[in-house]
Write a structure and sequence with these properties.
Order of helices and strands: EEHEHEHHHHH
Number of helices: 7
Radius of gyration: 17 Å
Number of strands: 4
Shape: globular
Distance between the termini: 20 Å
Strand order of the largest sheet: 1-2
Helix content: 25-40%
């Protein structure tokens, strides 16, 4: 499972993250602070490549993407359908109103699984773990390359903690 989000920094840079079902970061994308969330989702997903055990190509397509309302746009839903990715995101109020205004021409509401959406907290917990690294929370690094390096190091530390069984709530 994956998702996106960001932490706004002093220098107006945000990062978006794709997170697996265990709450471990898979991919980061650094963007300007004023950049919208929705346009960043597809570039974030395009950079994912997960090696599978045994022969064969790495997986580049997640089974499910769980995202917040900021990513709930018809173009995003269409792109996820084209890629055969299950997309779970609540519909925004303006989209509901626009569909209702069209009456029967508005179409059916997109499928939304509330039980699966509850797992989105895994993404938020990942961001909270990353914020425990002081450099990331306070944004000591002013250059984007340094900030990206700090994010990568923090992600490596989280993965190593999980692999050694030190990450809270994990059992090997």
């Amino acid at each position: 499972m994956g998702g996106g989000g960001g932490i706004t920094a002093e220098s107006s840079t945000r990062f978006r993250a794709a997170v697996d079902g265990r709450g471990l970061p898979i991919r980061f994308l650094l963007t300007p602070g004023q950049a919208g969330d929705n346009p960043q989702l597809l570039p974030l997903l395009d950079g994912i490549s997960v090696a599978c055990p045994g022969p064969g190509r790495p997986r580049c397509r997640p089974e499910t993407v769980i995202a917040g309302k900021a990513y709930s746009h018809p173009s995003t839903r269409e792109a996820m359908r084209d890629r055969r990715i299950r997309f779970i995101s609540p519909e925004r109020e303006d989209q509901i109103a626009r569909r209702a205004a069209k009456c029967s021409r508005g179409g059916r509401p997109p499928a939304f699984d509330a039980e699966v959406y509850k797992q989105r907290n895994v993404v938020e917990r990942c961001f909270n773990r990353l914020k425990q690294f002081r450099d990331l929370a306070t944004r000591y690094a002013k250059r984007a390359a340094y900030y990206q390096a700090e994010l990568t190091i923090a992600a490596i530390v989280l993965w190593l903690r999980w692999l050694t069984g030190q990450l809270l709530g994990t059992v090997l």
